[in-house]
């Protein structure tokens, strides 16, 4: 708890910050001031260091500015996640109207992952940690995932995700989409199964009629 003793055994800003957080007596904000007194000539504070300092000092405006200027949405999203869920930072405002600072950066980062196959399952896990907008965004995401066929593993996983999280309307739309894509691939049996699961009698009947007509035409 003695500042002079601590200063004598640490080397640089980061060690000073951690040492004071563990052994100091005046709280998190004081840890930043102590760490600054430990900065050496070769110490260079990075953006993450500055963000941690801003968080510990409850300097929200500076923290938001640093996070927004980090070199990519991945860093911004996970910095916000660590600060909120790890250090218990309470933001106290919603600058973008989409659930708060952490949710905003998580969603912005997830947008950058959509072009990478199979990362949608990772996105599901992240969106479920976003209480304000997560489920609505999850529904939209599930309908955008490319599906090779209605009998594919991807289709089964998407429908299972809908069932797990009670996204019944999303499941219905997904089944209709799978049925339509099966018809485009000339797979009427797969299409019929999807339409039946969606309880869509008109589309089911139309699919059966078309299949019978095709069979009769081929002799």
Profile the largest sheet.
none
Q: Give the low-confidence spans.
A: none
**Share of helix among residues?**
55-70%
Q: If helices are DSSP runs of H or I spanning 4 or more residues, what is the number of helices?
A: 13
DSSP E strands, number: 0
Structural class call reads: mainly alpha
Q: Estimate the mean pLDDT confidence.
A: 84
Task: Give, in order, the helices and strands.
Answer: HHHHHHHHHHHHH
C-alpha-based Rg, rounded: 26 Å
Q: State which percent range the strand residues make up.
A: under 5%
The shape, in one word, is rod-shaped
Distance between the termini: 92 Å
Protein architecture, described:
This protein has 219 residues and is an all-alpha fold. The chain is built from 13 helices and no strands. Helix 10 runs antiparallel to helix 11, helix 11 packs antiparallel against helix 12 (188-197) and helix 12 (188-197) packs antiparallel against helix 13 (201-217). It is rod-shaped, with a radius of gyration of 26 Å.
Mind sketching the topology for me?
Elements: H1 3-7, H2 13-23, H3 28-36, H4 47-56, H5 60-68, H6 73-86, H7 101-111, H8 120-127, H9 134-144, H10 153-164, H11 168-184, H12 188-197, H13 201-217
Helix pairs in contact: 2-3, 4-5, 6-7, 8-9, 10-11, 11-12, 12-13
